[in-house]
């Protein structure tokens, strides 16, 4: 069964506090009890020693003129809750303190026991009598009988002390639990309120409102990060939505242009208005090629997105491959009077998918061609330092700051009208990036509008050598 986070949090908090108090109380109660019993035992022993000493001092059977001061012993017996009896050497009782005060204590103990929900016997212990010899100047002059309740010989004050202790434990547990309850309520509210807001925003996004953002002010790192992640998700979805809409219109336009040309040409042929000359047929053929290229690009992209990027790696000379690709571009570059500068380190042997590397270079070089001004310069380089670096630098139209972060996205074209003129569909760089990543590398771009663009690809040596 699902439970709200606030309830779970409060439950865990209270459980933890309760557990902590329980353990602390049990341990401290046990320790205090142990110390207290030890103290009582010592105290009791001290009392008995004192009685023995007192009687030894006061009782002198050899001197009948010295009468035993039994009031002092009686007072002591009453004060310390003891029964004291003195016998002479023949066993005849000379003094007895009487047991009435002990019976009174027994009654008190029973009352206390009932209050503390304990049996009197466990509280006071059994009634015990002990007999000790009275020795004076090394001579046995009689015996003393001392009676009391249990070894604890617990007094009213002692019981009260224990009672107060237990009461204070109960009170502190109750107060702490009450406080824990209030604090957990406040804390869990503080914790769950921003989460509720974020959930609301996420639900709104699900319903299509991608502009909505959560107004969350929190100092909890995880919640802050969650909020950022949701906002990032919103931004991405918004961007994707924009791209999707643009894709539909772009694709429609991209397909309609060659189709319209083809339609008008073929109609003119059919109506006999135009002779199907070689030149006119070539123009139809070019349009068909354009359509085919578009479909191929879409196919490539679909393959990439389905994650079926299989690399067919082999050992080859990357320097030679780059030079070979540049060679194939030379006639095209000449048409635009572009100067090619090669800065390629010779003899770099790699273990990569050659076709995919060719495709990467093809995309970058055709972009450099498309977006360069007449008579510009394009520099292609290969370096091998800590990493393997390939770069393509042009002095073309450049990319604006706003467009730069998006150029690797699907169907993103920095300047729609100009890109359309150049025949691009905004797919080349998406594919390039995916191919670079598949080889464990990364691609970066630096560009200034009107000045030119630099693409830098880096591969970790261990992945490609
Ligand atoms: P396209 O097929 O439209 O060229 P890409 O994915 O290759 O698609 O590039 C995306 C966009 O990035 C292009 O439409 C273009 O606006 C911009 N771009 C790419 N390379 C360059 C470059 N060398 N100079 C200027 N802009 C470029």
UniProtKB/TrEMBL annotation:
Keywords: Kinase, Membrane, Phosphoprotein, Transferase, Transmembrane, Transmembrane helix, Two-component regulatory system
Catalytic activity of the protein: ATP + protein L-histidine = ADP + protein N-phospho-L-histidine
GO terms (BP aspect): cellular response to phosphate starvation
Any Pfam family the entry gives: HisKA
Annotated Histidine kinase domain residues: 250-463
Positions of transmembrane segments: 9-32, 169-187
Protein origin, superkingdom: Bacteria
Entry's EC annotation: 2.7.13.3
Coiled-coil residue windows: none
Compartments where located: Membrane
Recorded GO MF terms: phosphoprotein phosphatase activity; phosphorelay sensor kinase activity
InterPro entries linked: BphY/WalK/GraS-like, HAMP_dom, HATPase_C_sf, HATPase_dom, His_kinase_dom, HisK_dim/P_dom, HisK_dim/P_sf, Sig_transdc_His_kin-like_C
Protein name: histidine kinase
Organism of origin: Crassaminicella thermophila
